Design the sequence.
């Protein structure tokens, strides 16, 4: 793939606003294949979802082990040439039960080995601080001109939005 110099043509606080800008470019016939939305100032957020006791650790481990066990049992069942459907389903069920049991035991062991250092459940995700719309240098000036035509007082649903006014696209430095 040929890497071309790119330039930031607009910056938005939310992905929806950046998407709206690219959609506006598309509606005007701009070659959007030369545009990208780039999340900037990314941070890792770990949202705590609750306490994790022995029961929760066992349940989480059982859920994690059940699916791989069922898939492995099903694959072994399909290798039976005489009656692959019945044996496949039966071995999948056995694999599900065996995988859940092994997963529950491993979940308990891992939780006990941590000795209360991490007795909570959480979900991690990446969260950008802003979204830059970048375009190839050759078409960036045209994109800036088209984005300047974007109505500033309305959002995509036709309702007034002060946040959109505050986030008008602004030009930025060249990206390479």
Sequence:
């Amino acid at each position: 793939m040929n890497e071309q110099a790119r330039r930031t043509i607009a910056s938005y606080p939310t992905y929806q606003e950046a998407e709206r800008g690219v959609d506006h470019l598309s509606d005007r016939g701009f070659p959007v294949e030369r545009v990208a939305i780039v999340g900037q100032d990314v941070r890792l957020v770990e949202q705590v979802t609750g306490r994790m006791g022995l029961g929760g650790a066992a349940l989480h481990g059982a859920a994690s082990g059940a699916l791989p066990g069922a898939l492995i049992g099903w694959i072994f069942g399909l290798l039976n040439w005489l009656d692959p459907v019945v044996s496949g389903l039966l071995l999948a069920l056995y694999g599900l039960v065996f995988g859940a049991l092994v997963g529950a035991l491993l979940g308990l062991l891992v939780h006990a080995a941590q000795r209360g250092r991490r007795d909570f459940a959480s979900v991690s995700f990446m969260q950008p601080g802003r979204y830059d719309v970048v375009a190839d240098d050759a078409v960036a000036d045209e994109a800036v001109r088209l984005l300047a035509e974007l109505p500033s007082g309305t959002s995509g649903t036709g309702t007034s939005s002060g946040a959109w006014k505050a986030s008008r696209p602004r030009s930025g430095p060249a990206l390479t």
User: Anything to note?
Assistant: Helices lie at 15-27, 54-78, 84-114, 137-148, 162-166. Confidence is low (pLDDT under 50) at residues 153-176. Residues 46-124 form one domain.
